[in-house]
Each structure stands twice: as structure tokens, then as C-alpha cells.
Design goal:
The chain contains seven helices and 18 strands. It has 334 residues and is of the alpha/beta class.
Length: 334
Amino acid sequence: MDRMERFDTDPPVEVEELELDGLEPGRFHRLAVSLIVDGAGRPVLVPVIVATGVEPGRVVGITAAVHGNELNGIPTIHRLLKTIDPGRLRGSVVGVPIVNVPGFLANQRTYTDGQDLNRTFPGKPDGNESQLYAWRFMDRIVSRFNFLVDLHTASFGRVNSLYIRANMTIPLTARLARLVGADIIVHNAGGDGTLRGAAAALGIRSITVEIGDPQVFDAGMIRASRVGLRDLIEELGLVDPDGEAAERAAVECARSFWLHTDSGGLLTVAPELGQMVRAGELIATMVNPWGQVVRQYHAPQDGIVVGKSTNPVAQSGSRILHLGIVAEPERPES
């Protein structure tokens, strides 16, 4: 049986936790990890696909759909795994296509208790619904990883470039971030309840990859992220180079922040994704329902557009655009 047949035909097996040591080497394994029980007494099963190598090595975990409506990471994981031959793999690659299963089934960003799961990690073993789910996900799955790549998209009413958030002060993390071939890399230490921050607190080197827009499959971005993630696992020594390489010309930002409206109306955001804007440049215009201009918004400083709002209906405090502040180039020591 060849690699593709093994990937496509193995049925899922329900388990209580991810136990890599018990999996047969040199093949794919489809697992359904039971985390909680729903109100009808049914287990909520998280899909996990594991490629176990014939040689020992690092464990790279790739997660998607922590927000239930952020879908581009799902086919990215599927297509990446199809490029791997477990019979020549050193270590393991663990794909978790859907982290937030309840949110995914409800077609919504948040967990079903209304909480943002990516502000809930590492969770609590005796916490509320989302806290318990997050804690068990960390305990039963993520704790097995040496590296984590967490795949996201923009939320409803916004669009994103292909960009990465990573702690660029850690040399290995920075090197991995630069391999993925993103348009923009934003230095961000993590924390604040994110999966990436919780994994980093366990010593797991972690990056977040934002792959476009919610509730759609974007073929171009899926391919670009798949190629970049393959480069990452090649760099870590799990697989041999496949001859395909991501473009590496990312604009690196020392920080980034969202700009918000101070009034309400119909908002038009002018710059395109990835566009450089200058301090004082007009970036958005708001009109009232009578068509009168009520606000004009200008860039507070030079930067690059990482993401932006696409929903014209804005109230006070709505997002305008995500501005990245480009890092100063490193100067050679004299």
C-alpha cells in the first residue's frame, strides 16, 4: 500500500488522549480524542491525524480552527500531511484540523458558551465549559508537542494578509517564522490566553500563522502556507527537502495594533493589504446615512497594513485597520 492509500483509507480510532509511544511507526493514524461529554451524553471528539516516523525525532503539532469559523487551516493540514511519507519520516507530525469542535459545528467563532477559546488557554481542570475544554486539549494533546504551529484566519468582517505572529526574540522561533514564506511577520510574545502563549509556557516553540479570511477556502493561501509549513518541518529535520520552497520576503514588524473608530456610520477603508502607509495619510472615511462625511481617519505613523475591516457598518469603537510598525534593520556591530 503506497503513502496516499495509507493516508486516505485508515479509519479513525477513538481514544482518551494522544499517546504517541503506542502508535505503530512508519504510518498515518487517524484518532478521535475524547475531551468532554455533551448534554446528550455523547463524547465530543477532536480529530487528530498523526504521521509517525520510522526514526525517533521531534514532534511538530499543527492546529487549526481554534476559532470555529476559521477554516483555511483545515485543508492546509490535510494537504501538508499528504506530502509526507511516514516510511521516511524522522519524528512525528500531529495535525489537529479542528480544535474548537463545538464552535465549528455551530458555525461560529467562539466556543458554545460564548467565550473566545483563544483567550482561555491553558484553561482550568475544574473550570467552566470553555476553560475545561481548553485545559483537556492542552493536557491530552498539546503537551506531547515539541513545536506548535497554530493556524488562524481573520474574523467575520475583516481580511488578513498571510502573516505570522511569533516571539522574534527567541532565535529558533524567529528562524522557523521566517521559513513559512508569509507576507508579514509581527513580533508578538504571546500570552493573554492564547494557545500559542500556553504552549510557549510549557517550553514548546510556537508560532501563529494567519491564512486569509474566515468561512472560505482560499486556494492560493492554502497552497502558500502548505509549502511554507513543509519547509519548516524540513528545517527541523523530520523530512528531506521536496524541491519546493516558499518565497521569503516577509516584512518584519516590531509590533502592531488596530486602529478604531470614535464614531459610527458607513466606513470605507482605502489601503490594500500589505500596503505601506505614511504618517498622516488618509486611510478611512466615514459617512452618515445621509451621505455626509462625518469622520476621516489618518495613519498615526508609518506602517504596513496587516489586516483591515471589510464591514462598512461601523459603530463607535469598530476596527479600521491593523497597522504593523516595521522593525528597524539590524546594524552590524562595529
